[in-house]
């Protein structure tokens, strides 16, 4: 495995790797095998920070990949820094919680290291009549 990527220590003591893999694609249904190969190549290169979002449609694939890596025993959940995002239409408090729970389930983890608002901007959620 590659050498350890340096980290930056935040004010709360959490360390974030200075380089991570962003996993956005063209927002079409992702190719599972290609994504898993990319995740594996990133791990082998020393990456430990991974950025995803519900909108990328790959949280389940990432969850499955990391679950299998953790079972192999060479990598622990605490070795990985996971970032995901809440989509613009899910910013009401009750929807943020639902979005987070969905991401936790898909990523097969009990915590997210960093939860962001995906491209914050004013959005009025319309209701259909």
TrEMBL record:
It holds the Pfam family Aldo_ket_red. Gene3D superfamilies: NADP-dependent oxidoreductase domain. GO terms for molecular function: oxidoreductase activity. InterPro entries: AKR, Aldo/ket_reductase_CS, NAD(P)_OxRdtase_dom_sf, NADP_OxRdtase_dom. PROSITE patterns: ALDOKETO_REDUCTASE_1. Residues 19-123 form the NADP-dependent oxidoreductase domain. It comes from Panagrolaimus davidi. This is NADP-dependent oxidoreductase domain-containing protein.
